[in-house]
Amino acid sequence: MTRTLFSQQPSGGFTAQPLLWSVILVLALATPLYAEAPAATDSSAAPPASAGSAASPASPPPAAPDTSARQPALRYSSVTPEAAAPPPMPLLPPPTGILSAEDAPNDAGKAILVTWRPQSAPDDLTGYRLRAEQLKPAAGKANEEKPATPYVFEHSWPANQEEYRIVIEKLVPGVAVNVSVQAVAGDRYSEPSPVQIAVPKGNWFHTGKIPVGLALAVFIGFLLIFVQKSRSGAKLFVRKIAGLEAVEDAVGRATEMGRSILYVPGLSSISDVATIASLSILAPVARKAATYATKLIVPNRDPIVFTVAREVVKTSFNQVGRPDLYDDNSVFFITDSQFGFAAAVDGIIVRERPATNFFLGMFWAESLVMAETGAATGAIQIAGTDAVNQIPFFIVSCDYTLMGEELYAASAYLGTEPILLGTLKAQDAVKLLILGVIILGVVTSLVGSTALFDILRPPQ
Amino acid sequence: MKLKALLNIDRRIIYLIMLLSVIIPLVAKLDLPTKVTSEVESIFNAIEALQGTGKAVLISIDYDPSTAPELHPMSKAVMRHAMLRRIPVLGITLLPQGIGMGVDALGTTAREYGAKSLEDYVFLGFQTPPLSVMLGLGEDIRRVFPETYDKVPTDTIPLLERIKNYDDIGLTISISGTSIPMSWVATAGTRFNQPVAAGVTAVSAADLYPFLQTNQLVGMMGGVKGGAEYEELLDRLEARLGTAEQRFAAMTAEDAAMYKTDRYMARQIMNPQSIAHLTIIAFVLLGNVGYLLTERGRKRG
Amino acid sequence: MTASATAWISTDLWVWVAAIMTLAIFSFLYRDNPLYKFAEHLFVGVSVGYAIAVSWDRVFLPKIWTGLVLHRQWSMLPPVILGLLYISFFFPRYTWIARYPISFMMGFSAGVALPLTVVTDIFIQTRGTFYESNAAGDPLAPIISVAKFQEFAAHPGVLSALNALYGPLLLLGVVCVMLFFYFSHEQKGPLKVAGMVGMVYLMIGFGASFGYTVMARLSLLIGRIQFLLGEWLRVL
């Protein structure tokens, strides 16, 4: 038995399969719950070489929008690396209001959130000027004395809002930022307000990704439940697929006409889901061929798929008690060249003139080359692929086509693999869930609510 | 009998008719008008909006010579537009075979517009795996690409001092014959809020319309038609600005003729394309008429 | 003008090589033959060799050789060792060792790609089914809107009709196609009707995909014909 990652046979002692799935599961579940990992304190005096990946695109700060409703915070990353010139001589009294500065939530520790709610203002006030200063630790050896480099962010906004919320980015994590506000009246400035101090810190948990985490947990939960159910032998209903009803007739037709069955399990490798699904369907087809003593031809493009297909066919013939009918040469490897394989299959179709052709698995541009040749010989053709671009070609040249997920459903229906069946049922459950969300969304949108829309917003 | 003949035309005759419907418009230099769609115009407007912002355009050249007839013209058209407007261009590729395509496209367009390597554009070359590249560009371009295609260390390039990551890139355009544009939408678009546009082969175009509908893609150039539309938009812009005439006047006649042909490549392909499409439609209708009449005859008989 | 530019056929060796290889591949239309086989094998060999050379020169040398060996960035050692474990594939007794780098890569890819896929392909697409949004992701208007129907009633026309029907048609298509691929219940009654409607939508979509694919193939053919007639034979 070929030793593959998904083999059911343990590979002599230690099997990595549970470990593999555990790793995937843990990472998949854990990743959406993390914000970016908090960065180490940057002790370099040079301007930061890497920007916070959670930062919005830096752009010249626009004029503050004129609205009384709470707006999302504006984000600014234009930090000047040099120390700014000292502010002009204050001529106005300091502004009155509530200034607060705190660590920005859901980030890697390079941003702070500043909120300024002005209370009373002189009549000739034209705007406010925010100043945020951070002393970046100097790089170099410990015994060297180097002055810290101040990073200063300054910007002005017109005085037409009840509240200003600003996120200042590209800061050094763990180093205090001094924030103050000045009132502006034309070319006159006030004394700065009392300084507020904020320390940017990285967050372990990104609250904006909770919906993503929940969605993944629900899906993985469904997967585990249904796979477990399937493994324990519970009967899980899968409806019949139209193309599958024709399999029996197609095999019977080949038997009556005394001709062979051609089964092409796709051109992809064993790690492709479509190939696995195809090989699951090959088993019952081979059993039927053995029962009716019909010749079965299985050409392969991938060497590993060839070895697996050979085992599948041999086992199927044994299962119906006809090992004598099994021919090793009926399952063979041709070439790994895409169009070379297609040309060889065309040659088989023209020479052998099989009564039934199965094209199940992953196909690319060669799909129509083979299917058209088969159609020209008058064979009944059943195709199935999840390659969306090839489905139209199979539809026009084959009698039955299994489209996309129908191939997986067919393999779950015909095959004996509990993971395939459990996965299919889990997907169905999630489909219903998504349908429910869509209908709920339509209904709530008709009454003007954007709650569901906001829940599904991509995390920033 | 005649109806049967309609349904059973020898395929070699069909090949011959298709070949003639391609060759005749090419040789006759047919010139059909190009209508522009909103999907392509969106990309054009997005690049226009980058003027004066200091932000760059990142072009991911992820195709090989097998899809070059569809993708190379649109690649060049986008680069021409950016260079015309003096918007810095960063070229990368996630496929080994894309290197040659990138060198040709950037080299040709840079020579035409007098753009200087490392100042107006940088070809960073190939890196892999794609997912790591897309994620890494959100942190630091220079860490993902330690050197350019010409083996110049990227930390010595002044342009890349200013353009560090997605924050400094105004638009990412993925030009590919594979599903790489969808990965760009998922990583750069969703994770980093980076505006992403796509230039794809016609085979993949249908798969990307859901992303257009939700504005996850700024715009899309689908197949050679998309390239033709972008060329048309660029020509209209240059006609308004009068820049094309000045530029060609400063070149030798041979160079001017070569660039003029090169700028028209996608539209040149669209001429026989349109005729071939009409031929196929005629065959499809013929086949269906023959089939319906045969069925009717069979039912009567 | 140079003599080569005015020649009736190209005198560039590599144009001739490309033209001969193109014709060799086209000979498959007649039937499989040694010339086609040679061209195909040459293409496969050259593309694999090129990929190896590029990976060596552009990935291994600047990142691993320069980083690990020349600059002694030891942090690169664990991933390099993990990557080297792939070589165990060539030793049948030790193939199981390769499961470690494979599981690490699969875990990393799944961990990174899963949340992004959920957001990109499910969340944003789902909400795009009931709300139009702008590039920033802010809601603009409901997909299905009474106002659009009122607009159609006030100003009947093709555009206003399409605008009003767009939302219901989109919703109908999404729901019916999803129910077409629902396998846990027998398709009877309303489910059967929904499945049939879904099938219609699928066929329309496949028809568009078919047309696009034909367009793509034709473009590639035209590109080759342009090359043969233009660069090689200088007819164009």
How far from one another are the termini of chain A?
Answer: 48 Å
Distance between the termini of chain C: 17 Å
Strand content of chain A: 15-25%
Averaged pLDDT of chain A:
79
Shape of chain C: extended
Q: Largest beta sheet of chain C: what is the strand line-up?
A: 1-2
CATH level-two architecture of the domain at 236-416 in chain A = 3-Layer(aba) Sandwich
Instruction: Give a short account of the largest sheet of chain C.
Output: 2 strands, antiparallel
Number of strand segments of chain C: 2
Helix-strand category of chain C: mainly alpha
* Largest sheet descriptor of chain A: 6 strands, mixed
How many alpha or pi helices of chain A? 11
Low-confidence stretches of chain C: none
* Mean of pLDDT of chain C: 89
Proportion of beta-strand residues of chain C: under 5%
What's the overall geometry of chain A?
elongated
- Our Rg estimate of chain C from Cα atoms comes to 29 Å
Provide the low-confidence segments of chain A as ranges.
1-20, 25-70
Order of helices and strands of chain A: HEEEEEEEEEEHHEHEHEHEHEHEHHH
Instruction: Write down the oligomeric state.
Output: heterotrimer
Description:
The complex is a heterotrimer of chains A (460), B (301) and C (236). With 460 residues, chain A is of the alpha/beta class. Among the domains of chain A are: 125 residues, Immunoglobulin-like (Sandwich); 181 residues, 3-Layer(aba) Sandwich (Rossmann fold). Chain A contains 11 helices and 16 strands. Chain B has 2 domains: 59 residues; 226 residues, Rossmann fold (3-Layer(aba) Sandwich), CATH 3.40.50. Chain B has a 6-stranded parallel β-sheet, sandwiched between helices. In chain B, helix 2 packs antiparallel against helix 14. Chain B is globular and about 80 Å long. Chain B starts with a helix and ends with a helix. Chain C has a domain of 91 residues. Helix content of chain C is 71%, strand content 3%. Chain C has 8 helices and 2 strands, in the order H-H-H-H-H-E-E-H-H-H. Chain C is extended, with a radius of gyration of 29 Å. Chain C starts with a helix and ends with a helix.
